[in-house]
Input
Amino acid sequence: MKLEKELGLKKGIQVREHEALLNIYFTGDILKKRARVFFKDHGITDVQFNLMEILYHQADDGIGLTQRELSRMLLVNRSNITSLIDRMEKAKLVTRFDVPGDRRYNAIRLTPRGKEVLLNVEDSYMEEVKRIIGALSKSESEQLVKSLEKIRQGLRKK
Output
């Protein structure tokens, strides 16, 4: 369905680039809302899931990642990482520990409970992702990735 119809606009969007940008924004908003519901049903947030995914798949076994590394890899503001980790530590999903040889940094590791929660959600999450992106052909999804990469590159140049 065309965006202008979904939004109930009385007149079409005149500038094609504006229409494209609004489509990205509107689709992202729908995805964010869908993710909120999906993860709420699993007792976590999308950001908590993302952090656990990164710890599970990106950290060397038993070493964890520093808060600085996590803030770079996560889709959240650096100032939010401390409070996010505080909440996850209270929920026993992650644990903090000192980085050997550098007391300025804390490293973060998944707890056994965090790993269990992640693994309980991960399969159904990946199925949902495949279902959503399955509306596109393989070549369309590859083109979407390339197009969004180009947009991000352009944004970073300014």
